[in-house]
Amino acid sequence: MPGMNALEFTGLTKRFGDKLAVDGVDLRVPAGSFYGVVGPNGAGKTTTLTMGVGLLRPTSGGSRVFGVDVWERREEAMELLGVLPDSMSVPERLTGRELLRYIGRLRGLDRRVVAERSEELLDVLGLAGDERTLVVDYSTGMRKKILLATALLHGPRVLVLDEPFEAVDPVSGATIRGILNDFVAGGGSVVLSSHVMALVENLCDRVAIVHAGRVVADGTLDEVRADGSLEDRFIDLVGAERVAVRTLSWLGER
Length: 254
Ligand SMILES: Nc1ncnc2c1ncn2[C@@H]1O[C@H](COP(=O)(O)OP(=O)(O)OP(=O)(O)O)[C@@H](O)[C@H]1O
What we know:
- The chain is α/β, with parallel strands linked by helices.
- The chain is built from 9 helices and 10 strands.
- It has helices at 45-52, 74-80, 96-106, 111-124, 140-152, 170-185, 197-203, 221-225, 230-238; strands at residues 5-16, 19-30, 34-38, 60-65, 68-69, 81-83, 158-162, 189-193, 206-211, 214-220.
- The strands form 2 sheets. Strands 6-7-8-3-9-10 form a 6-stranded mixed beta sheet, sandwiched between helices. Strands 2-1-4-5 form a 4-stranded antiparallel beta sheet.
- Pfam families: ABC_tran.
């Protein structure tokens, strides 16, 4: 649906006790876009995305996926969304295939469809060889990949992925990039967070820079980076004082 927003966050705010982690984030992700969210550690990216997909109740503000309110019409919203969950939110004493079967049934998918898609996902993501390994015993990168598979299984229209490339080896990274590019080429929309500016510049056509719980720049990649690189713009906006590389006076003294 060109012209529509795949995702729309309005005034998303989250307070944890005294800490204002997210401070009125407005974000529009046009349908068909590949959207990158960047920001320093603790900027509020995970909190924003988790609220935006309806997995964390905001202190105030709201979120819609293709116009569907993620809190008021949860089931409809969840069908549209594919979310890379944090690993603690899935049962881990299952093999990868069992986990996919479990998630597929939970989502009401046909048993045969789940079996076919699971085979393909395990194969494409390079997990098919680890038939007997339980997810709890997976490496960090393997875990990221099986969680991505759970996000893709039901064929969502919008993918929201928190650091999908973190800890993933280069071959798997290239596979995931290919999957995401195909997804967008086929009309899907992707939002991902990452600390790797080059990756965001390569993949995304839109970007938001988040700092101290606020969006400090957003738009097309070219609008945000202006005449420089995304990293230059990031450093400008996030504070030049952070660039001064500090060292430890006592380390290396012999
Ligand atoms: N459950 C929680 N309870 C208290 N504070 C929290 C909680 N979750 C997040 N925070 C705080 O909210 C702020 C934003 O955290 P968040 O994880 O959203 O940042 P982030 O941008 O995703 O960081 P990173 O790049 O390091 O993953 C941080 O100061 C963090 O300590």
